[in-house]
Design brief:
With about 130 residues, the chain is an all-alpha fold. The protein has one domain. It is about 85% helix and about 0% strand. The chain is built from six helices and no strands. α1 runs antiparallel to α3, α1 crosses α5 and α3 crosses α4.
């Protein structure tokens, strides 16, 4: 089980570091998106602060996952970002690749939350 956890951490960490860094220095090609999805991304980019903030949170969360010491902190930091990404992919992007990425992100996040459930029990204890 430990090897699976390390693999999930490394895959998820790499995804967030790469896609987060891409928000600062676009080095990956952008696939065509539906008009509603494009309008949403354009609004985030033109706000001036939200797009870089998302990139920063993704890079920090991804680096924490790659490091492996602060996985529960990283899971908590990335949970709202993953929720937003999944809703964007399911409601706005609506492609087969988007559904696959949404399933991957949710599966990884839920696995990490389940794997570190003893540490979360301390946080939510009365």
């Amino acid at each position: 089980m430990r090897k699976v956890e390390v693999a999930v951490r490394w895959l998820m960490g790499a995804v967030f570091v790469l896609f987060g860094a891409n928000k600062f220095y676009p080095f990956m090609p952008t696939p065509p998106v539906p008009p509603a999805a494009g309008a949403f991304i354009a609004a985030l980019m033109t706000s001036g602060y939200m797009w870089p903030l998302l990139g920063l949170v993704e890079v920090i969360g991804g680096l924490l996952l790659l490091h492996g010491r602060y996985v529960p902190v990283s899971a908590a930091l990335l949970a709202p970002v993953i929720t937003n990404i999944v809703l964007y992919l399911l409601l706005l992007a609506k492609t087969g690749q988007a559904m696959g990425m949404a399933f991957f992100l949710i599966s990884c996040e839920l696995f990490l939350l389940w794997r570190y459930r003893q540490r979360w029990a301390q946080v939510v204890a009365a």
